[in-house]
Amino acid sequence: QVQLVESGGGSVQAGGSLRLSCAASGRTASIYIMGWFRQAPGKEREFVAAVTWSGGSPSYADSVKGRFTISRDNAKNTGYLQMNSLKPEDTAVYYCAAKIPFKGYDYWGQGTQVTVSS
Question: What pLDDT digit, counting tens, does each position of 76-99 carry?
C-alpha cells in the first residue's frame, strides 16, 4: 500500500504562484509514476502532470504547459507541483496519485484546494 498526503494549497491572485507537495509513505519503492490531477466544481477530474518516480519523462496537460513544473525528491519520498502564472481557471481541488507498474493510478491523496482570484 502507498499513502499520499497533499499540502500547499491555498488562495492566490491571478499571476501568483503556489507549490503543492505530495508526501508518500508505505511501499514507496513500488511507485512507478506520480501524477497530479485536478477537479473543478461541476467538472470531471482531469490530468495535470506526471513524472516517473525516477525523475524522467515529465508530461503536462496543454493547459498548464510552460506554467507548471512537476518534480520529485526520492530522498524525501515527496512529489511537487510548482504552479506559476496561475489563472482563475486553475481553481480546483488538486490530487496527487501514484501508479505502480502494470496498474493504473491506484493510490490517491485526499486533495488540496487551490483558489485563484481575478
Answer: 999 999 999 999 999 999 999 999
Spatial contact of 43 and 63, defined as CB atoms under 8 Å apart: no
Q: In terms of residues, how long is the chain? A: 118
**Mapped to the 3 state alphabet, what secondary structure does the chain carry?**
CEEEEEECCEEEECCCCEEEEEEEEECHHHCCEEEEEEECCCCCCEEEEEEECCCCCCEECCCCCCCEEEEEEHHHCEEEEEECCCCHHHCEEEEEEEECCCCCEEEECCCEEEEEEC
Q: Is the pLDDT of residue 56 over 90?
A: no
Cell numbers 496519485: residue = 97
Residues 6 or more apart whose CB falls under 8 angstroms from that of 101 comprise: 30, 32
